[in-house]
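S., here's the first fold you wanted:
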Amino acid sequence: MTNILELIGQRTSYRGRYRDESVPKETLRAIMEAGLSAPSGCNKQTTSLIAVDDPALLSEIRAMIDPPICETAPALICVLTQRVCAYRDRCFSVQDYSAAIENMLLAIKALGYESCWYEGHITDEDRIGDKIAKKLGVPDGYELVCVLPVGAAADPLKKPLKKSFEGRAWFNGFKKE
């Protein structure tokens, strides 16, 4: 396995086409286990996951997503959250599912696949996540907030240009020039 720091540096959001190769259920399970291993505010464990790899169901879900994304991905992981008060009146569900998603993105990369964090597109005003949740039989009290396509990349990876370390991180105080 790649060193974790190297893996973090190699990971990128992949929005290209996927190869027509299924992702083994054991691999999807390993990815979801990585997500569920993420820290959770006051251990409320507000994140739940659904892997979708059935071609007919994937086709139905893709038809709900406009503009289209994940059109060729052989699998999707749907991220669900529950808004639960964890400490006094504080809810950490966004932090919980964000940590789970990052763990899964790193696991996906480590296992030789690619993905992209699609949230805004799913939770926008047209509420695509609600439509997908209904199709998947998600009960009330859960919100589908993200989909992660999972598959082998068919196109070359494109690394975005990152700002310099010195332009975004400092020691012992803010030192923007």
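And the second, which I think is the more interesting of the pair:
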Amino acid sequence: MYMSYAYYSLMLAITLLFMKKDTIWFKFWIPDVKSGILKGLVAFPIFFSIGYIVNILFPVQLKVQDNVNVNSASVFLLITLVAPTVEEFMFRGYMQEYLRQRLKTEWTIVISGLIFSIFHPFVLFPQVFIAGIFMAYLREISGSILPGIVVHILNNLVEYMSAAFAR
């Protein structure tokens, strides 16, 4: 568990360093936090519906590792808060902004979604790729990573609860 926290801490630190180096310093954030959260809450049912269809087309059976205690508070926080927030900073905050300065918006969305999916288990590629594209598009239309953070947190919360109650 400590290794996972160390990994996400390192990823956030590297992301923030690259953001500063490339002067992409919080350009992707909007000051209206309430609006960003609301947009994420509105987008989640759409995201969940798309995910449901993708899961029907590409069924996956994942087994939670027996040595992972899904009922621990640190696992809950890692899966539902730390990972989504850091990943949105990395992929939609830094990487997407970096790419959009160099490519057309459509390519930026696809490439950032593809890179996002590479950082997840390959067996989940279709699901994570579509999720990455959805959150990249959401970032483009909202001008903020906050709606994507909300969608990502809610998605991971649903997945966590499914794993916790499946045991």
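Why I say that: Residues 66 and 167 are 9 Å apart (CA to CA). The helical segments are 2-21, 33-57, 73-100, 105-118, 125-142, 146-166.

Talk tomorrow,
H.
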